[in-house]
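User: Modeling request: complex.
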Amino acid sequence: MANNNENKVMSAGEAISRFVTDGDELIIGNYTVGTCIELVYEICRQKKKGFTLYSQSGILDVDILINAGCVDRLVTTYTLRSGGKKGGGALERALQAGTVEIEDYTNYNYNARLVAGMHGFSFMQVFEGIMVTDLFKKRSFMGEDKYRVITCPYTGKNVVTVPAANPDVCIVHVPRADKYGNAQYWGSMGSVAAAALCSKKIIVSCEEIVEHDVIQSSPHFTIIPAYRVNAVVEVPWGAHPTEVLGYYNRDRSFYGMFMAANASAEGAKKWMDEWVFGCEDRKAYLEHYIERFGMAPLNKIRARAFYSAPANYGSAFTSVWDETGREQTMGITLDEMETILKERGLLYE
Amino acid sequence: MSKGYTLNELLIITCAKEIKDYENVILGVGLPTTAGALAKALYAPHATLMMESGIIDFEPLIPLNHIADAHSCRGFSCATDLFTAFTMTYRGFVDVCFLGVGQIDKYGNLNTTCIGDYYKPTLRLPGSGGAADFISYAKRTVLTLRGGEFVEKLDYFTSPGYLDGGDSRDRSGLFPKGSGPAMLLTTKGVFRFDDETKELYLAQIHPGVTVEDIKKEIPWDLKVSPDIEETIPPSDREIDFVRRFAPTESVGRALTMELSIKATLNRSVGNGK
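Assistant: Request completed. Predicted assembly structure:
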């Protein structure tokens, strides 16, 4: 589908069903904070499977997708465990059972793959120190292609490289976007832009859809331009229980409930049945949450305002014609200009 | 004589003293963030505090939940990205970084990836995150060990310390000269690395701990500094700062949990549930 400047607003259900395919390389766009939880849940509900999942810093996203049986392979640098020696979690269980294969990178090495991909390069140089570690030495499904060492044509030194990543589809949550898909993000930038821009298709969910004017007067916040975006999903509280700057903080007690449940396979299944499969969409999820805990926990984590100082994008003129209708350089009106052009014989008639 | 302090307060304050004024500091979550806030407030007003997520020169209001927690800051001076946070480290702009330890060997090499076989682990730890990159290229690294262990051989080599000891790190040509771990802080003492052999040795011991207590946890014959000192007790000013900024860290995880459950129950009773 060509990314025309058209209205791309749709439901999470439609976006996932149209743009996510079994067996895809799927990348989580968010990094540690404000994760695209509703899009993750929708993938689980639609029982998509066979993914090679990329997640730079897996929090709930990785374990929930593994719990739902969606993941065959994982590329990551860090995946939160449920805590303590007994903790574990879905990834640990899947590795022990041999149902998920993993490639471990460092934060920089993983990010370098996305940056190569976003700029159209086939590989990226990474820091040479990695060669002494098991990250370099122990390889899984990527084999030789996890890292390759080449000779720098300028210095003659050994240079370690990682291959570009160009995942099939990125799912990403942002604070705000317009209906065309211009996606704005602020706060902790992480690798969000690179993860989205290296991907072939991009599904954006947002806390709110704003007028195009808002985007045009604050372009420094736009990290994904509309022409790259396939779908825009408006989903308030779409990152809950993770946090979105300016909207809400992390729901720590609910997050803690997930971590506790996820420590065992039975607990995880029960949690998934209640919160992922048991709620048809985010609205149903929020209704269920309010039924269980009331509004108070959500009200408590709503952000108070701390506005960015507006940047002045203004200039001296908004037109080449002055207030008397004269062009500023030549000092003539449009009528006068046309007369002169005609007199000089410069018009084809 | 200062007022009483908790073990966590002692650890945070000892850690904070590793930050010097005018330094560029990469902090990790938990103890180091609070240590960074303390250092900035009391000893190093010109330090630049940074997180690898791209938050540069931040002013923390409360302890950060994680490395991308802009919610806990009252603004920051520059919002760069993760890629740039690492390339600036590679270029030598980071003076000190802080890392947590899963397993550590005698030369300060680290494992934060797994316990047991990598492909079928007994325990899957979080992974490298930024650890391997930072300890490779920050000018120096401060390590904190709380739940981790000392081992003869790492189950997985995640992050390079002094490799095989001696000058092997510098000789490899892969790292800036003189970089590497500078100090290891545990709940029992402070370890540093010998200038020549690069083997870690016990340099300070916390109050109420014996050298024997520490040796029990270490599977090799630990070297102990001939000038071993007791860790300097914190001042009232330091204790007050930590207690106000990060009360749950002063109190510690177990007691915080106990009190928070009690508070939740009390609220439920108050709500008539």
